[in-house]
Prior knowledge:
single chain, 3-stranded antiparallel sheet, 8 strands
Amino acid sequence: MDPTSALLGVLVGLVGGGGLGYAIFRVQERRKVQAATDAASNVMKEAEGAARETVLAAKDEALEIRARAEEEVGRKRGELEKDQEQLSKRREKLDRRFDQAEQRARTLDERERDLQDRSREMEQHEEKARIEFARIAELTPEEARIQILEQVEEETRADSARVIRDIENEARDAGEERARKIVVTCIQRCASDTVSEIVSSTVALPSDEMKGRIIGRQGRNIRAFEQATGVDVIVDDTPEAVTLSCFDPVRREIGRRSLLALIQDGRIHPARIEQIVKKEGDALDKVLIKAGEDAAFEAGVPRLHKEIIRLLGRLKYRTSYGQNVLDHSVEVAHLAAMLAHEVGANPELARAGGLLHDIGKAVTHEVEGPHALVGADLARKYGVGPMIVNAIASHHHEEEPETLEAILVESADAISGARPGARRESLELYIKRIKALENIARGFQGVEESYAIQAGREIRILVRPEQIDDLAAARLARDVARKVEETLEYPGQVKVTVIRETRAVDVAK
Length: 509
């Protein structure tokens, strides 16, 4: 082999080996770069994980710090609230003590003023006493004795009036409480319906043509009817109606029933009128007896005389202040019996007295005198016992009550008449009663004015304070009440109120 070929071979070998080495070198360099990159990536990942853990740890620590801070703030707030509450309580205590101090100061001021006023009064009394002693020193022994006796008498009267007033108030309170319980109990047990009735005397006609038939030719029918019944027939312009007028309610009822029967029969002439009137009178007599028997049975009062039964039945057509007298009598019988049970009296006597107490009203248009005395005479005539007769006669104080049952009958009569809606009275009678109440009060000395109020249930009296003192006002109320009891008749009770007023008036100029 020649040297040139050998050299070329060597050069070719060198070049080929260098390229391979370079290639190997490049591969190794790439692997190092990759390894460095991977190492750097791992380092970065580890750094990120560490950073994330650091952040989470920092957040946890921050939350824990915040929780501790909030807990501390809450504790401090609670302490502040407790301190504030204690301060408020202390402030309230101080305010109360301040108010008490002010109240004590005002009380002390008032006491001081009171002491000053009393001191002035004492000085005035001492001055009056000095003047009085000086005046007495100039009197003779007899004059001084007379003055002392008059003064003692006046003081004794004032003391006695004060004692009487206290005793009366105490007795009135106890008695009114007991009486109220008894009366309320009896009224509750006797809860009957009470309706004000008006006796109607108007008869309805089928037509206005019937008026001519009732009058008859030249008025013969109406004259025959009035003569047979004793009832006035009023024919006016009222359409399809005529009015019957009579002071006797039973005769008026006979006339009403007879006229209705004649209208229904259609045959109206004098002979027929007499027949119908007699027939209706007999029929009404049976109705009266039946009504009286029913009332006696309902009231529980047996074995009454037949004429007493008939008189009771007549009360069915009698009213007093709009209240049916028969219903009122039965109610009084029940109330009197219940009151007797409550107070230990005889209920049978009270029941009979209550049923018959107004029996005189059945004939008061025929007999002169108060209905209580008339009824007592009738009861005595027909064999009623003397105790019941006394209860009848005394229920309006025409006679003095002799038994407790008589007083109970009077009380039951007042209760029945005074119940709301039980009675009514005409305007004229109401005005007369009101004026009578006011005039009674004006008749006493020292009365300036009097007014009846509450429909006559109360009278208020204004007195002159310079003439009537407080004790005299109490005596005046009692005297007026007694005068009203003795003078007037009224349902229920009348309250007397005396007003004594002192006024001081001055004018600013």
